[in-house]
Structure formats: C-alpha cells, structure tokens
Batch of 2 targets.
Target 1
Amino acid sequence: KFYTNVSSIPPLQFLNATQNAWETFSKLAGCHIGENINGLSKLKQYFRRFGYITTTGNCTDDFDDVLQSAINTYQKNFNLKVTGKLDSSTLRQIVKPRCGNPDLIDGVSEMNGGKILRTTEK
Amino acid sequence: YSFFPGKPRWPKRKRDLTYAFAPQNNLTDEVKRVFSRAFTRWAEVTPLNFTRSESILRADIVIGFFSGEHGDGEPFDGAMGTLAHASSPPTGMLHLDGDEDWLISNGEISRRILPVTTVVDLESVAVHEIGHLLGLGHSSVEDAIMFPAISGGDRKVELAKDDIEGIQHLYGGNPNGDGGGSKPSRESQSTGGDS
C-alpha cells in the first residue's frame, strides 16, 4: 500500500508501530552464555540470515559460543558496545526494520573492519 | 563502506543503464518518480546514467514489489522485518516487500518525517537498494545510505560522504559534476531517468 502524504496515514499505523516479526527478540534481554532460553533459536536464524552465523544444521535455544561470536560481530558492525551480551541497545537495533541483504557474505565483513584497514593504508 | 566479495561492478561499456518496473505491479507514475529521484542521487556523483525502459526484457535493472516467497530463495516476511533486497552487479534485481506500507514523500529532506510508525519511506529504501545494484555492501556509518537499518517514519535520501567515497571507488566521479563535495541543485542536473 502506498501513502502519498503523511496526513493520509491512518492512526492505526501509529498504534501498531511496535508490531514486527522481530519484536519478540526484546524478551531475550539479559540472556547470557550457558543459558537455554526459548526463542534463542529464532535469534540464531536471524543472525544466520544476515551472515553472522555460517554453521549449518538446526539452530538450538542454547546461548553458545557461536551466538556470542555473532553478537560480538553484530555489535561491532553497528557501532554498539561489544559485550557479547543481549543488552537493550543491541536488541533495539536488532528489531529495527532493515535491508534483506546480508551484512556478511561467506563470513566476511568489511562493514567496520574494512574502514579500519583503509584508514591504516592512508 | 563495503563491497560485495570480488568487488563486482557494472562493466565500463555499461555506463548508461536502463531500468524497468515489473508490469504486474501496475505502479503509478508517482511511485515511478520516486525511483527516478533515487537513481538521480547516484547519477549525480558517478559517470552512470539511468533511463527508464518499458521493457523488462531489455532493461539492465528490474524493480518489483513482491510478497512472501517470490522465486529468488529470499522470501519476504510481511510488514516490517526485511523491507527489500537487491542483487550485486550485473544481475540487476531490486525487490521490495509488497506487504509494507510505503510512504511517498515529495522531495522533503527531513531526517524524521513521522513519529514511530510502521510506514516506511519508499525513496529512502530505493536509494539504499540502488547502492547494492551498483556494487556497494552495507556500511557501519549510521548516517550513510548504505547503513542496513531504518526505522519506520525515518527518511534518509541524501548520499553521505561514506556512500560517495564507496561508489566513486568503483566508478569514479561524475565528469560533469563536482565529485559530490557540494551538490548542485537536482533540478539543474541532466542525469537521465524519467523525471
């Protein structure tokens, strides 16, 4: 559906503003390594979709090293404090609508790493 | 800025690119003009020109709105979530999620046009996806067009320094422009398209 100006947007669109397939990730705040929490498998699928997890096979609800490494890289790419934890600022970023293209292809990210390299070259 | 692996770009003989819209979408001229403006933003800072074609068979780039599974193995997920995706050069596919509510803003530049909402600014997403079509990957610079996320109600259509440096690394600057340092008015530019 296309809205041709701001005033044509029905109020319902503002009320539903937090409804989003990824909003359920918000309840994972505070999870840490070693825990098994319902919903972490979906978060792993999210990270796999955008290239942060490259392992194949079923995603489990375990907060394991693979997930922690994915969170670390995600936080680096999005200029967040690198904690490896599902803190509120990381989850706020994760649930935002975004481009479907992956951030990493074949496990390689230049989003932030490339910038550092180019600066060194200069 | 970043690139796709292997740094694919449109070949040198392809500086005049054509784009077409999937006919089944029956898009209005108003929607098509949004894409024309989006292409113009990249044309201003590169040697590339973009012209609309009526034939998807002859066009270098095909743009379409699709819902759910649509044949490329990357299904859309309904409202919000993923908004669009695009291929690297020289494939030329730009797909937008047909389940989104899209806002057509008429040229305003304001950074935030609405309080939090599920309506997404179409031109902002179009400019980003065209960056992918030309060879750019995602950027960590939050002000850059190629930053991967955008909130509902946000509008970001102006190329940042990071975007311009990235695209000029691939294609060089606009021989008729100033390289993107200070932008001339868009109305005075002749960059192809249908506007």
Target 2
Amino acid sequence: QQQGQCQLNRLNPMEPTVRIQAEAGVTELWDKNNQQFQCAGVSLIRHVIQSRGMLLPSYLNTPLLAYVERGRGFFGIMNSGCPETFQSSQQFQQGERGAGSRFQDRHQKIGQFKQGDIIAFPAGAAHWAYNEGNEELVLVCFEDSGNSANQLDQNSRRFFIAGNPQQGEQQQGQQGGARSFQKEQFQSGNVFRGFELELLAEAFGVSTETARKLQGQEDQRGHIVNIDQGLRVVRPPFSQEQEEREERQEQGQYGPRAN
Amino acid sequence: GIEETICSAKLRQNIDNPARADVYNPQAGRFTTVNSLTLPILSFLRLSAAKGVLYRNSIMAPHWWTNAHSVLYVTRGEARIQIVDHRGQAVLDDRVRQGQVVIVPQNFAVVKHAENEIFEWVVFNTNDNAMINTLSGRTSAIRGLPVDVIANSYQISREEARRLKFNREETLLFTSSGRSSQYGRV
C-alpha cells in the first residue's frame, strides 16, 4: 500500500462507535479513522437532543451540513458583523413598563427547522440549536474536513464558546472506537478557559466572577444542556398553523388575496 | 471604462496610513485591512493582509479568524498574546515583541493586550477576504446570541447575561483599566 493511497477495494456499512452523553442528549461519532471516511475527507456525527435541550454554541473549522432526521426546533448562526435584526421594539416596552419587565432582547437572526430540513453552517460560524418539540430531535451532521474552507489539517475541530463539554460521559461502541482526536472535540473546555481571567473580565467589562462563569469550570452538564423553563427568544411565528391563522386574519381584513 | 487586467492591475496599497483605518478607536488604536475588495489582485493570490496598532493599556477583542490562518509579525513595541485551541488550552501565552512572528491557526481564539507600550503589527492571511469573528464587543458572536441562550449556556442570571452582551460597545479595540496586567502569568 503506497503512502496516503486510499484502500477502497472493500467497503462496508458502519455504525457509530462512540457515544458522548450530556445532560440533555447524546452525540454519537462514526470512527473518522476508518479508511472510508479518511479517503472521503469527511466525518459524521449524530446529535440526539431531548425536548428543551440546547446544543451549546460552538464553531468548527469545516463547513457542516445538518439533516433533521426527526423533531423540530430553532437555531442561531452568528455571522461576524451581521446586525441584530431580531429585536423587540423599544416603544412597545416603554408603554408596558408598568406591567412588570417585558421580555426585551435583540439578537441575530434565528432560523426554524423541522424534520427533513437540511441546514448549512459555514466554517468558523458559531452556531447553536434548540429542541422546541416534544419528541427527540435527531440531527445528522456531515463535516467536510476536505473542504477548501478548512485550512487546518484533516481533523475537524469543534471550538465550544460555552459550557464544559469535557463533562460528557463517553461510552465506547463495538468497533474499536474513534480516534481520541475526534472524541476530544466533546471532551475539553471552551475557548474562554484558555484566557486569563482578568483579561477576560476586562474584555467583557464584567466582574471576574462573571468571567469565571464564562470559563465554565464548574459546569457539569456537558455539551447539550437542559432548559427547564424553555428558551425565550425574539422570533416570528414558526409554526405553520400559526402562520396560516395570521394569513387568514389578513385575508379577513382585506378579502381573498388576488392571484 | 478600462477593464482591469493583470497587466494594468493595481499592485500596491499602503496600510500604514492612519487615514485608511477600517476600525478606529481614538483611545485604543486602529485596524486597517487590505483584501481582494480593496486590492483586486489579491483575489488571484488568495491572500490578504492587515495592520494593527494598539495603544498602551488597550486590548484587541478576543477573536478568531473564521476562514484563514494568520501570520502575525510585530513591527513595534510589545504585547501579551494568548492563543487558545479547541480544547480550551492556551497554546501560546507570551509577551511578543518587535521582530517576532506568531502563527495563529484558523479558528484558534486570540487576545492581544498592549500593557506598557504601543504595539504595532502586520498580519498576512491565507484568504483573500479573511474574516474575523469576535467574542466580545458590539459585533461579537456573544452579542448575536439571545439573552436566554447566554443565561442558560453560562448558568447566569438574565441580568448578568445582558451585561456580558452589552457592556462593551466598542467593536474590536478596547481600552483596558490595566487591572489584568497585574496578574500576568508570563
């Protein structure tokens, strides 16, 4: 066998070999070391997220395509410099200030997804996902480390910007198991961990206590966390029924919509 | 109009001139980029460059280059630089001074802190339209997150989450109170 030459004369179906358990879900990894993945320059992972579970924000050095095998929810992608276009209106709050604090926020765009959707995540763009449904959310994620957008080596690296992914419990599958590098993605700290606490506090203009929370040293939840009270964000109506209802209301006001 | 071809292509652009700054903070410094949008020939080379100036007691926001490796060459002064990999490990935590070179791999998080003197550097990027994503400041990834996502991600109150999100109005270059330089580990 020549150095670096792919052995593709025998292919076989593959199962995930490693499971990384977290508070509100599990991530299963296919062994990237397997010749077939090596030759294709790709890797595959599957996130199974419980209801009200959130995959913590992270970014990758490879572009990623996620297929929604089951469930529904919403996701955010932070593109550098994009404005916070999802914003609760200021005046509206003024009027209601007396009625206790109304939910106010502004953030970048949020997308909805449901079973059968494909979602594209550019390399280097921080993203997060939340299971808003009542059933499990299953996301099958394809990472293309052979893509020209990846300028590192053939290993896709996931940089978490929150939480303490190393708390995930790892269980080995039947066939040997993925190379330690792959598991490492879900078994290390977030990027803030490496910065000096004071500098971090300075950079955010917050107390060192809050900066310590950024580093997440004491966080025991792993990379998929449970949000009991549900996630509140500024967002348009997501469900189809809701949208149709609003459309009908509009028609009621203006009559049937002309073709 | 004359089509720009290789023969008549513009090949040169100055990035030292303060008037060309893309990001400018009178108290903290400036940052100037040259990429294929400002110097079209770079789309053939698929490279870009930038020049940074940090005044004393200033910080460049923690950030990562989303689509490029970055080679940093110091042209003046000294600063403390920390570089963190995907495991949260600081793979570099050092004071870097004039004449030295540091390589920042794609996606690795970086922070620069000019403590006692002005710090000037040039970067060469392996993408003709290299992009920075910041972790703090007005255009940062954290700012783009919903308050609830921050509160739940870091197990903090909503109020704390708002502070994390909104306390820094600058985009890339911040003044520092100098508190952190007392704790420097290097």
